[in-house]
Amino acid sequence: MESGNNGDDVNVEKFDIKLKSKPKDGVILQLHHTIRGSNGESRRIRFSVGAFEDTHEKLACADNVGNIFVFDFADLKFWKLKNQDPCSAMLFDPYKLDALAVANAKNFSINFVDIESGDVQFALTGHSAPVKHVAFSNNKINNLLTASPVEAILWELRNYTKYFTLNTYTGAQIQQILFTPGGDYLVACFQNDTVQVWRHETMKSVKQIIPRELKHLKNIAFTMNGRAMAIAGLAPILILFSMDTWKAIKSLDLLKYKISGVQQIAFIPQMFDGGANKILAILSGDCVLHFLDLDTLKIIHSINPESSGIRRFSVSPTGKYFFCILQLGEVNIYKTSHVMDLAHSSIEEPIKKDLPCSSVTHKCVTNKQSATKVEVEEKMRLCMDSARLRRILMQYGEYPDKFRSIIWRSLLVTPKNKKAYTALIDRGIHPAYKDIEKQFTIHSSVTLKNLKRLLSCLAHWCPLFAVMKFLPSFVFPFVKVLQKDPLLLFECVATVLINNCQLWFEYAPFPPISILAMIENILAEHDQHLLDHFCGHGVTSQTYALKILETAFSEVLTCSEWLILWDHILSNEPAFILMAVVSYNIVHRNALQRLDSHEQLENFFHMQNPIDKKAFLKKTYVLLNETPEEIHPRTFFTSFTSLEKGSSYQQFTGYPKATICLKLAKTQRKKAQEKCTLKEVTTKTQQQEINKRCHVKNKSDSEAEDSTDNEQEEYNNFIASVEGFKKKLSNKQENFGGHLKNEIKDELIESIMYPVTTHFLTNKGKNSKLCKKNCKISSRLHSQKHATEKCNTLDKEVEEFIESCSNSDESVQ
């Protein structure tokens, strides 16, 4: 990259960068800063320090002049900040978005710079020498540690004050000081070859380590879990300490690796190492970077750039990237996975070359490889406890695609009940899902078959799942991900329905009122303005929450985003999914507030909208941790419950036991399939009502000869009453009170539209009561002459009611 001048930039302009996709040497980007003078000559300025920020995949690098460049690997952009003085150290603030702590080499202050604008937000002063080390505490958000060779200061960032200062004396200057990964201890190595440990809470010394065989101590490093510490110096010795016992674990002679001394060391986090990092990066005295496998005690790879030796290096907190600052001032940025692939390929090449052509030898090699695979799977099973998996998830943000199904199985503790699953399969395709291909367009016959099988098993397991119309949309993304293992697919979905879908079916087949109320309360707590915007446009939680839940986020997220979200949902408590719904709305606040109609807002939740997945997940965790307990879903949810191991699965009991709900759902489903006019539906309902009432009366009435006449008389009276009511509503343009109108409408609709819920009277006077009720309605209509609202016709009232019922049914389904 080139810079045409050294003047201060008024506006921050961003430029595109292009990363190498498959670099041969692992370098995805190389940086050099060249400026052109007034005479046209080019001069290269050396880079001196840099720092990674993993949350949004950013890197900041500063040169000797004071220019700071920021590189965004997510958006593939870079930009230059306003000119600062030369800096001696820098670090991203993990608790403040877009904040960079920069140590000024001239006045020894710590400036907090906004990486978007380059403005200095505030500065900390108090050092008497250039700051070489900057660290943030992991257990105290507002604690900052800065250190120069002669002093170390602990800062309280809440009020910008220092509350502890460590001064040194000549001959015992600070070589390095940092927090342990857990933040419980403060560890420093000094020029007099001692290591001092303080407890962070009290700043009292708890341990002093003086390695006798290690001289000229330079550097210390911790594994991510904080249980092991490596110490190295200019002597060819590497010592590994256990932080649990404060004793040396190993002492390695580096001369056998042709390393005469060590300038810098750092652990490289890897997938599935559970924080017990096994790869140690060692910058030797001859400026070569070596990668040492602490399990095999072998150098698996070395980096020795042809153009220049390496002066220093830095690894990102998650181990995804690392960079090397060369002695000529250039910066090589590496992607760790590419370097590890090179390391593995270099190990395998000699083996492949030595393979003879005989089939016997080839067979032996194959057996050896399969044995190695078994060992790897055994190690993976040992590492598959939920605590380790969560640490991996928080470190990398997602689980690897290759092992996702195994990890989900471990998180959900699926029992692998083959006999119980086979019993469900043997019952065949459930009638409710026999023709599901008519409802959904699924091009893959294999996917359709797996979807039918899963839904049928769920329906056989619990009858409720045969009538919940949203269920196919909910389980479909799981089918796409886990369809290669049908048993795992069923048990994962069943476990999700038991735990993450608690209280969803409390009012089945109607919407889950309790769940929607929780979501609305959480949104009101954290973003009242957005909730007011929804209310102002008549948008309820059935639109901005229920639609997302019923599709398990698959309608609003891309495939990769969906997988990452469900990695986090399955790794956390059941309430996490509700927090994710609220977080999705809050993250899209700006886009939602620009929509000014109910239709636009409703369409928004039926499409995939661009989203910053890291900000989305970060906000979800904030809501999970900062929501008051009185409205937190965990108050109402039970803890995680796995499927029981055995010959049958436990019953699903999270729904109403009354069969009327299921009958009602089936009745509504049948009505939706029938193409009837309003008049036919009304007449049919009236006939069913009268026939049922007459049937009850016939049983109790001893005069069988009058039953037919009574039935006909009741029918005629009822029809006459309804027709009279319709005629009065359509012809007589009278206004009457809204309260009476609503009362009359409710009574009429109840008698016509809900024959199933009418309270039948078994005594002989039930028909007379019905007539009295109709007469009472007619008399009220005649007596009111001074009301304020204009009445509508009966057909319009009933049509609107049926439409509202059908809409509510669709929302439930």
Structure description:
This protein is of the alpha+beta class. It folds into 3 domains: 350 residues, Methylamine Dehydrogenase, Chain H, CATH 2.130.10.10; 268 residues, Ypt/Rab-GAP domain of gyp1p, domain 3 (Cyclin A, domain 1), CATH 1.10.472.80; 138 residues, no CATH class. The protein is 38% helix and 22% strand. A hairpin with a 5-residue loop joins strand 4 and strand 5. Helix 19 packs parallel to helix 21. The protein starts with a strand and ends with a helix.
What is the total number of structural domains?
3
State the strand order across the main sheet: 2-9-8-7-6
Instruction: Label the structural class.
Output: alpha+beta
| Unreliable spans | 1-9, 349-371, 731-741, 747-795, 805-813
CATH homologous superfamily annotation of the largest domain: YVTN repeat-like/Quinoprotein amine dehydrogenase
Envelope shape: elongated
Helix content: 25-40%
Main beta sheet? 5 strands, antiparallel
Strand residue percentage? 15-25%
State the end-to-end CA separation: 57 Å
Work out the helix count.
22
Would you summarize the structure shown here?
The protein is α+β, with helices and mostly antiparallel strands.
Features:
813 residues; alpha+beta; Methylamine Dehydrogenase, Chain H; Cyclin A, domain 1; 4-stranded antiparallel sheet; disordered N terminus
